[in-house]
Amino acid sequence: MPSATIHASAVLVGARAVLIRGPSGSGKSRLALELIAAARGGPLRFARLVGDDRVHVEAAHDRLVVRPAAALAGLIELRGVGIRKLPYEPSAVVGLVVDLAAQPERLPQTAQQSTELEGIALARLAVAAHEPALPAVLALLTS
């Protein structure tokens, strides 16, 4: 079965990837770059781009694997700056899905803290439009 292509960005953080979904202009690339920057002397030990804008996801051995779209591998778009080249990982296992421009509850129920992609259950974080996502993502990743 071929892998599904989705409109998302992904960053390998430690051993698992953060899959970042949201509409165009919601800050997917910005959050990806913030996570990578947080590994440069910050609260994260390691972070590297997997893919930006479009990624392939595929269920394999009860895990969701994410890969960059071949034409976009190693490229990330910075709104107002253009496209930049970065080191990237060819694949990673997803551990967290971040949904930008979502309607999160103040105190989310358990059902809202998970999602399913390609039949795989994953932890989920919903972030409201125009809210900074990095603090909440770091809180989940480092606690």
What is the CATH first-level class name?
Answer: Alpha Beta
Total beta-strand segments = 10
| Major sheet description | 5 strands, mixed, barrel
Oligomer: single chain
Average pLDDT score: 93
End-to-end Cα distance, whole Å, is: 36 Å
Global Rg: 14 Å
H and E string: EEHEEEEEEEEH
CATH architecture: 3-Layer(aba) Sandwich
Shape: globular
Structural class: mainly beta
Number of individual domains:
1
Biggest sheet, strands in spatial order? 1-2-8-5-4
Q: What fraction of the residues are assigned to beta strands by DSSP?
A: over 45%
Kindly state the percentage of residues in helix.
10-25%
Q: Helix tally?
A: 2
Any idea of the CATH topology? Rossmann fold
* Low-pLDDT sequence parts: none
Descriptive keywords:
46% strand; globular; two-stranded antiparallel sheet; single chain; Rossmann fold; five-stranded mixed beta barrel; 10 strands; 143 residues; mainly beta
What does this structure look like?
The protein is mainly beta and 143 residues long. It has a single domain, classed as Rossmann fold. Helices cover 14% and strands 46% of the residues. The chain has helices spanning 28-38, 134-142; strands at residues 4-13, 16-21, 47-51, 54-60, 63-68, 75-78, 82-85, 92-102, 114-117, 120-128. It has a 5-stranded mixed beta barrel. Strand 6 (75-78) and strand 7 form a beta hairpin. The mean pLDDT is 93.
